[in-house]
Amino acid sequence: FVTLFLMKKWQSWMCIGAVLQDGNLLGYHGWGIFEEIDGIWGLYEATLSIPPMYPEGYPEIDPDDTEWKVGDVTYQAFAKFKRKEYYESSEEEMFAQYLNLRFKIKETRKKYEALQRAWHTPVKPLKKLGILSKLRWRC
Questions:
Q1: Residue 78: left if φ>0, alpha if ψ -120 to 50, beta else—which one?
Q2: Is residue 43 a contact partner of residue 61, using CB atoms and an 8 Å limit?
Q3: Cα separation of 74 and 102, whole Å?
Q4: What is the DSSP letter of 1?
Q5: Which of 28, 29, 39, 99 is the least buried, fewest Cβ under 10 Å from its Cβ?
Q6: What's the CA gap between 71 and 93, in Å, rounded?
Q7: Is the CB of residue 29 less than 8 Å from the CB of residue 98?
Q8: For residue 118, pLDDT beyond 70
Q9: Residue 72 phi, psi dihedral angles, 5° rounding
Q10: Is residue 133 predicted with pLDDT exceeding 70?
C-alpha cells in the first residue's frame, strides 16, 4: 500500500516493528504511515477486513516518532523505509534480529485479536477459512 500512496504523490513509509499491549509483546508486524492531503499523518493497517472511514478512522500520528497508539495497542517501529530511504530507530540491528525470528513469534493470534479490538473491525488473518486456518493458530 505504501507504493500506491507514493504513486498518488502522498508521502508514506513502510514500518516494521513490534506490536505491544500494556507493555507486553504480542508479535511483530508491518504497517504503513502516510501523509494525508491536508498534511496530517495517519497510520494504515492493511490486515483490516473492512477499512475504516477516511479520514476519521485513521489515527493521527507524528511521523518522527517510533511509537504510535491505536486504542490499547502500541505499534513500535524499529525500521521504516520507502523506495530510496531506510532508517532504523535503534543501533541494535533489530531488523536483522527480526529476520531471524520464527514465524510463530512474529505472527500470533493474540496480536491479531488485539488489533481487531483496537480498530473495532475484523482482521483478515482471523477470518474462518477452514481447516488450514485452524492448524495455523493451534499454538
A1: alpha
A2: yes
A3: 22
A4: -
A5: 39
A6: 28
A7: no
A8: yes
A9: -100, 15
A10: no
